[in-house]
């Protein structure tokens, strides 16, 4: 074990110091070997001849210098060859790193947490401009350059990654550039840990994806506009079809019923035994005519070139009041309909009409309140309908055709719909849309 520790300690010596030690050791060993071997050889050759012994000693020194020089030459030549090879490898590596840096569109950062040493490529300087290569407070400073809306989330994600055993963290956020504009970036951070699992180093890459996100946003916006145009075309087609049916009901079916009513009113048919049946038939015909008028007025879209939204809703309320025992409270004093387009007016009219149909069919209500008001600061129109009907459990509500029609109309103007209802307490429908 002691031997292994010694070897381990040797391997920890710096390369240039190890090379100097090796050269010194070679020179010392060669010198000692030369002295021992040459003295033995000189003594054997000279024997008892002192004059020859002195001559050989002098020549031995010269030979040692020559041999030492040759040894140093070969060693330094070999070392120079190795150094030249290392320099070539270093140059090749630098060229590869430079090419990789140019090929990589993002910024690269290498941060040693223990020493505070910071290395960055040129592109990273755009997001983190600093001349110092030692940054003990790098994490704090970098966090301050993240947009305030993302800062807390990024800090929490980083702390969670450090606390875990994860080796990478990939996330997206907005980062401040040197031009004082925020850019959307995709960051991939590699967490380097030691054998004990302690974090020692961070290597990260930041990609500027602002243009990509802008293109995606533009694409989604175009898709939404296309969807709105399609929905608007469908609604216009529905309104045209409704108008045609209303015209058919008014011009054909209603006229025929009027003629039948005239025939039933003819004095020649008023014989005693038929009077009761005739009166019942007349009542039924009158009831059918009222239903047809109500149906015709409900499906025929109002012309806002000739009437206002308030007048159209009052007419709708009057038509319902003639055939249904329901009281109304209509308030539009805070509603400026001149700010709405004709399409928005028609949407508001259809929403009120659709909910009134729902109330008449399912609620058994006797009173309905309708309120229209306008939020000028936010340019939002609001419509609220409240009834005193039997209500329902909205958690068990399956969205019917009426509510789906309202939602589809609201989608054209980024509108929202809320329903509040409990069994026995009526229902409140609140909608709003951007003007």
* Count of β-strands: 10
Q: Please, how many domains?
A: 4
Please state the overall shape, judged from the principal axes of the Cα atoms. Answer: rod-shaped
Largest sheet: 5 strands, antiparallel
Low-confidence stretches: 1-11
Shape-level CATH architecture of the largest domain: 2-Layer Sandwich
Helix content: 55-70%
How would you write the strand order of the largest sheet?
2-1-5-4-3
- Secondary-structure element string: HHHEEHHEEEHHHEHEEHEE
Rounded mean pLDDT is: 79
> What does the radius of gyration come to?
48 Å
> For the record, what is the CATH homologous superfamily label of the largest domain?
Histidine kinase-like ATPase, C-terminal domain
| N/C terminus separation | 83 Å
CATH topology tier name of the largest domain: Heat Shock Protein 90
SS field, number of helical segments: 10
Helix/strand-derived category reads alpha+beta
Strand content: 15-25%
CATH class of the largest domain: Alpha Beta
């Amino acid at each position: 074990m002691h031997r292994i520790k010694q070897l381990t300690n040797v391997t920890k010596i710096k390369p240039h110091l190890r090379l100097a030690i090796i050269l010194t050791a070679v020179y010392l060993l060669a010198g000692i070997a030369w002295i021992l071997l040459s003295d033995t050889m000189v003594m054997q050759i000279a024997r008892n001849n002192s004059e020859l012994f002195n001559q050989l000693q002098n020549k031995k020194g010269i030979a040692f210098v020559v041999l030492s020089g040759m040894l140093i030459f070969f060693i330094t030549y070999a070392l120079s060859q190795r150094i030249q090879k290392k320099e070539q490898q270093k140059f090749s590596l630098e060229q590869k790193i430079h090419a990789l840096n140019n090929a990589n569109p993002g910024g690269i950062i290498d941060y040693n947490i223990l020493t505070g040493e910071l290395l960055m490529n040129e592109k990273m300087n755009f997001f983190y401009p600093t001349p110092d290569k030692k940054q003990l407070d790098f994490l704090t400073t970098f966090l301050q350059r993240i947009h305030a809306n993302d800062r807390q989330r990024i800090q929490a994600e980083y702390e969670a990654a450090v606390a875990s055993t994860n080796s990478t963290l990939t996330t997206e956020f907005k980062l401040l550039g040197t031009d004082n504009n925020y850019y959307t970036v995709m960051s991939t951070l590699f967490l380097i840990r030691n054998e004990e699992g302690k974090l020692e180093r961070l290597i990260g890459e930041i990609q500027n994806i602002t243009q990509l996100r802008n293109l995606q946003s533009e694409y989604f916006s175009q898709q939404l506009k296309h969807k709105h145009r399609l929905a608007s075309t469908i609604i216009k087609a529905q309104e045209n079809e409704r108008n045609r049916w209303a015209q058919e009901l008014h011009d054909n079916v209603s006229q025929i019923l009027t003629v039948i009513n005239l025939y039933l009113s003819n004095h020649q048919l008023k014989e005693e035994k038929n009077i009761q049946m005739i009166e019942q038939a007349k009542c039924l015909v009158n009831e059918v005519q009222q239903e047809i008028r109500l149906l015709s007025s409900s499906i025929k879209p109002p012309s806002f070139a000739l009437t206002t939204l308030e007048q159209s809703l009052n007419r709708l309320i009057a038509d319902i009041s003639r055939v249904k025992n329901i009281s109304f409270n209509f308030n539009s004093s805070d509603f400026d309909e001149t700010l709405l387009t004709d399409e928005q007016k028609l949407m508001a009219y259809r929403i009120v009409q659709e909910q009134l149909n729902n109330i008449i069919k399912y609620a058994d209500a006797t009173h309905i309140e309708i309120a229209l008001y306008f939020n000028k600061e936010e340019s939002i129109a609001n419509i609220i309908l409240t009834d005193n009907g039997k209500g329902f459990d909205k958690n068990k509500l399956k969205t019917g055709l009426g509510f789906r029609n309202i939602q589809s109309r609201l989608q054209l103007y980024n509108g929202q719909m809320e329903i509040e209802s409990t069994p026995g307490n009526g229902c409140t429908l609140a909608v709003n849309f951007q003007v």
